[in-house]
Design a protein that fits this description.
The protein is α/β, with parallel strands linked by helices. The protein has two domains: 134 residues, Rossmann fold; 113 residues, Rossmann fold (3-Layer(aba) Sandwich). It has eleven helices and 15 strands. The strands form four sheets. A six-stranded parallel sheet has the order 5-4-1-13-14-15, sandwiched between helices. The longest helix has 18 residues. The protein is elongated and about 65 Å long. The two termini are 28 Å apart.
Length: 286
């Protein structure tokens, strides 16, 4: 947002009515909930600040994400969850209402989200012709379906990626190849990049929140651990960008990034304390 002074930052923080929270690397790592997450959420409720969970990871359905959060002690509602799969569905309905048949590189859970929304998932069959290709972070990926996706991409069908992430954060000793890397493979095979990449940093990820709660971008803080998705989305949307150092980005990288985050904190808890103190000080002054 280009905040230039401490007083300007404090004034802007007092305008925040909603926090868009990244998940992997911000509130948890893999299956491990950070110890400061639950106290942070409690503080936001006490201050009357709403929050939503935004994730570029489309591998789970919304119900699966809610169950995942509940297993870690976070009782969230469907309205508080928004994934890049949902954003892709919303994009298709708004911009390509005539498209119903999709070849989807995605997990069964993600495909079920599209089917619940009224789309038809085509099979790995040259005679089962789709109207568009959707590529996502597919942990169930098979070579045959990757080749079929490449074939349909080469036929110049609309080609949409759910998110740009190259890898997915994990607390396991493995590198999780994400949607951006799968798209790189398809580019080598077809010469095409996606027509559009949904998910962070695309500012349309915030449209649902803005419409639901009648918010201006300046009233939203986006908190995440990645410069090129979370913080770039904040910049693109003209919202407040808060970087936490509990995930992918180091302080050295953060200080050299352009644009630079509006706020850099060690973790979510530190940002919660900052907000809480600011609101408490304002009440004392009144």
């Amino acid at each position: 947002m280009g905040i230039n002074s401490i007083s300007e930052l404090e004034t802007h923080l007092l305008e925040i009515k909603h926090i868009a929270l990244d998940m992997d690397g911000t509130i948890y790592n893999g299956n491990t909930l950070f110890q400061f997450t639950l106290p942070f959420l409690a503080k936001m409720k006490e201050l009357g600040i709403r929050y939503s969970f935004l994730t570029n990871n489309p591998t789970k359905s919304i119900d699966s994400y809610l169950e995942h959060l509940a297993n870690m002690g976070i009782l969230a509602t469907r309205e508080e969850m928004y994934s890049s799969a949902q954003a892709t569905i919303d994009y298709l309905k708004k911009n390509f209402p005539e498209i119903k048949r999709l070849f989807i590189l995605g997990t069964p859970s993600m495909i079920s989200e599209f089917e619940k929304a009224g789309f038809i998932s085509t099979n790995d069959d040259p005679d089962d012709i789709p109207q568009a290709v959707i590529v996502s972070f597919d942990t169930s990926l098979t070579y045959s379906r990757l080749c079929r996706a490449a074939w349909w991409v080469k036929q110049q069908l609309p080609y949409i990626a759910t998110n740009p992430d190259k890898v997915c954060p994990t607390d396991m000793p493995v590198t999780l190849v994400d949607c951006g890397s799968i798209c790189s493979s398809l580019e080598q095979a077809t010469g095409r990049t996606p027509d559009i990449v949904i998910g962070k940093p695309d500012p349309r990820m915030l449209e649902g929140i803005q419409q639901r709660y009648q918010l201006q971008p300046s009233q939203i803080a986006i908190i995440g651990d990645r410069i090129y998705t979370d913080l770039q989305m904040a910049y693109n949307a003209k919202a407040l960008g808060v970087l936490v150092l509990t995930g992918e980005t180091s302080i050295k990288v953060a200080e050299q990034s352009v644009p630079r985050p509006d706020i850099i904190v060690d973790n979510l808890g530190d940002f919660g304390e900052m907000l809480y103190k600011l609101y408490s000080d304002r009440l004392v002054q009144k």
